[in-house]
Write a structure and sequence with these properties.
174 residues, alpha/beta, four-stranded mixed beta sheet, 4 helices, 8 strands
């Protein structure tokens, strides 16, 4: 066991960006979706693999083709922005690119009031772009995560009650 005097002082690591790798059923189909989602071309494409090198937000995002059975443990993915206008601008870009979007405005979710819009990739992974309007609500605050669509989908109501921020359906806003 090392003592405090044995520990070396190390300069903090300067991280360049986060890396996220997801498994997909069909890399070509996923590339098409993520071109539209991010508005950029992949920086690298190989058999069963693609990489998107995003600058805003800084992210090394890769697709790995393989056996995918269900959605797994991943809840959803998201991009937090500064304003409702940024949410609406992103929704417009996604819609113009042919992606189906679903809005949740002034929703109480994850102990915060948020405006957000959602899309779903070819493998069922949900992406949201959101702004936090009011944060750190009490644990007793009502949560509407997915409730608007849950009313139309009975099994989704049970899912939304157990998983905050989990989207339950995509409808078009086009």
């Amino acid at each position: 066991m090392e003592s405090k005097s044995d520990l070396k002082v190390v300069a903090p690591v300067s991280a360049l960006k986060a890396h996220l790798a997801i498994n997909v059923r069909n890399v070509e189909q996923s590339i098409e979706f993520y071109r539209k989602l991010f508005g950029i071309e992949p920086s690298k494409v190989r058999t069963g693999y693609a990489k998107f090198d995003l600058q805003n937000p800084p992210l090394n995002f890769t697709l790995n083709e393989g056996l995918v059975s269900g959605r797994g443990a991943l809840s959803h993915l998201g991009i937090q922005v500064r304003s409702t206008q940024d949410v609406l601008t992103t929704r417009q870009k996604w819609s113009e690119a042919g992606l189906l979007t679903r809005d949740e405005m002034q929703t109480s979710c994850c102990y915060a009031v948020q405006d957000k819009t959602w899309v779903r990739d070819p493998d069922g992974n949900e992406w949201e772009v959101f702004v936090v309007l009011e944060d750190n609500l009490a644990e007793t605050a009502a949560s509407e995560c997915g409730d608007k669509q849950a009313e139309a989908i009975p099994q989704a109501r049970a899912e939304s009650a157990t998983s905050c921020c989990a989207p339950v359906g995509i409808t078009t806003n086009a």
